[in-house]
């Protein structure tokens, strides 16, 4: 039976058009970086090959020219020609050495080219007319309730360990801790770290937030790598650390760019949460202030004429009555109604107090003449 060599598939770069990425990763930017980095590597490699080819051709041209000169000098019999012959033969020897050197470099370049992983830009030939692949059936997508319950259970069990990982700084320490606690390499850890970052930013613990943000991106990059390789994240986190510790400048820049973008998103989320909390607090306070007519005394006070505002500032009833007398009756009625509805002015306060007192002394209802006096409410 013919054996098929599958080793050619061992080194294939993952396509840069994967669409499954973590929500906190800027997917388009990540894909563009992956493709751009690979294209730049390929272009640099091809340029190197062209330069080697050019150098080898030039070396051969110079060698052919030197060999021709040697042949010309050999046929000559003058003393000057014999002296030049020795010099030309030495030059020919050096050029042959250079040619062998360039040929060796060219051969090494071709070997390196064969070892390069295939990718979406180089896979262009059909290898099989038919393929039969055992595909692992996809799991049913979890509902939001199931995800929430799973996250809650995981956090209750491993919250202390997640926080410890979030405080680590060195690559080696992070790798060792995950090796000792591989169950932490999962979506639940990444999600908890995101929430932890926002909480720290809300509490204005900015330096601590940036530290945990770094570990959050570490976990998210590991999860991205596992999706690309289609393996369990617990089985590939060592590959991430091996790569990041020996990464070229482009990969390091990509990690740092994603980290900075994530921190900006955290600051934005924290700002929104603070603003929402302030609005809720202000609304609660406003509801507490509402008067019997449903109006806010602070808002009503700000719409009053200055002379009425002064009355409430000094809590002077007589001054208020004098101010109302001097005003247009319609305007005065409008403002006083709003004062009553907001609780700034409590009418017939004295009559109510006397009525309550008389009611305690007799079971018969007592009716008092409505008095003009009232009570100016405090607490504005």
Describe this protein with a few key phrases.
single chain; 380 residues; mainly alpha; two-stranded antiparallel sheet; 13 helices; 2 strands; elongated
What does this structure look like?
Pfam families: CDC37_C, CDC37_M, CDC37_N. Residues 124-285 form the Cdc37 Hsp90 binding domain. Keywords: Chaperone, Coiled coil, Cytoplasm. This protein has 380 residues and is mainly alpha-helical. It contains 13 helices and 2 strands, in the order H-H-H-H-H-H-H-H-H-H-H-H-E-H-E. It has helices spanning 27-74, 79-115, 144-166, 171-180, 187-202, 206-229, 237-245, 249-289, 297-303, 306-314, 317-326, 329-342, 349-361; strands spanning 345-347, 374-376. It has a two-stranded antiparallel ribbon with strand order 1-2. Helix 3 (144-166) packs across helix 5 (187-202). The chain is elongated and about 140 Å long.
Q: Secondary-structure element order, as H and E?
A: HHHHHHHHHHHHEHE
For the record, give the distance between the C-alpha atoms at the N and C termini, rounded to a whole number. Answer: 94 Å
Specify the biggest β-sheet.
2 strands, antiparallel
Radius of gyration: 42 Å
Number of E-type strands = 2
Q: Spatial order of the strands in the main sheet? A: 1-2
- The average pLDDT value, as a whole number, equals 76
Q: State the helical fraction.
A: 55-70%
Morphology: elongated
